[in-house]
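The records we work with from here on pair a chain with its fold. These numbers are not coordinates but entries in a learned vocabulary of local backbone shapes. To see the layout at work, look at the sequence and tokens printed below.
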Amino acid sequence: MSRRSQLGATGAWPLVLVCVAACLSGCATRPPQVLTPQIVPKAFVGQVAPQAPVWPRSGWWQGFGSPELSRLIDLARTDNRDLAVAAARLEEARAQVTIQRAALFPAIDAQAQATRSGVGQAALSTNGQQTSTTRNSFELGGGASYELDVWGLSRDNLRSAEEALKASRFAQREVTLTTTATVAETYFEVLALREQIAIANQDIAAIDDILRIVRLKVRAGTASHLDLAQEQAQSEAVEGELPVLEEQALEAQVALAVLIGRPPEGFSIEAQGTNVIRIPEVAPGLPSQLLLRRPDVAEAEANLAAAHANLQAARAAFLPQFALSGSAGFSSAATNALLHGPSFLWDAGAQLVQTIFDGGRLVGQDHLAYATQQELVASYQNAVLNAYADVESALGQVRNYAREEQHLRQEVAAADEAFKISRLQYGQGVADLLNVLQAQQTLFGARSALAQARFDRLRATVHLYAALGGGWQEPPRDRTQSIE
């Protein structure tokens, strides 16, 4: 081969290396696609009202028709401490992206230095003559270094940080949704407990009315003291329930104050019962679309993508790393000569580092990254399954609690009629007190069960809205899993 041919072949090698590096750095693979047909159902089992709107809207809580609830949720979304923590974590993740992005740019620094040194007379004595000297030194310069991302290591690290940022953003949205739902549930709990307290007071008033009749009969000799003792025992039993209900209502109100970022002192709720709340309806769409509307599923998806980028970075670490460096500046013993040509100095260099032996550190990091990816594959699939189970449970709760409430309303109406008749008959002397006691216990129990069923239905509705994502939707640019 001629010398010219040899030079031509030699000069082609850098171009080949650049092309190979560009191809390798640009071949970032997609995260593993793990949405198998076995975990994505074709339809939801639970049935809903056919005219209900599909998917919640972003302000879904306004459908309950309570301005007080809307005001509390607005306060919580502004002042809740859990949301403040989530916001801080989001800023931490954003800072990590900035840190990882910096590796793609050269590092440039400037420096200035002034030193003064001296040597004593004894140290410099020659031929019995002692002298001393001092020396000044001034330096002004700068340097730059750049690590070539030939194999995409820095890009993989940046991609991992970006996916972690997405996960933090989705986690913040999940905390917002959870906080909103918890505020609604706690608010409804306060109202339901107040309703229970009102029912207990109504029961006590009804018992007192019966007691008045019993006392009159005892004085007249037409009733025994046994009847009086039984009715008094019933009165004490109902009054004994009041302190428990009042304590539960207080605890729920305190918890609600904390949720909106307020101290319990001076905090109060105006509404006294769930009768002022209407129950909206909502229906799910296609099951596959649910995965785009659940922030917890999107968070698991982003965590999997981040783990995959970490795995790519761990594998890129096996390849040689290239770095360029250089510096330039001025050095002189006098400031007036510092910026003159003779005092200029510079240096430049290139570095290639290839790990030969590290005791298995890189291999261990690769195995760790792969195991982490497999863990997050399972976590993502589990989040998907839990999302579907959550919706199915909420659909069943809404349906069954609505049926329960309907039957209990009929029971309350019938029990109220039976109690009125038994009380009238007892007053006329055609029925004994046992019938009255049985009728009033049935009525009191039905009223309490109806209040609980109403609360359960409200809570189930909130659960369904939260299970359907609360009106959130994952942006198309953030998706890494194929969803058909």
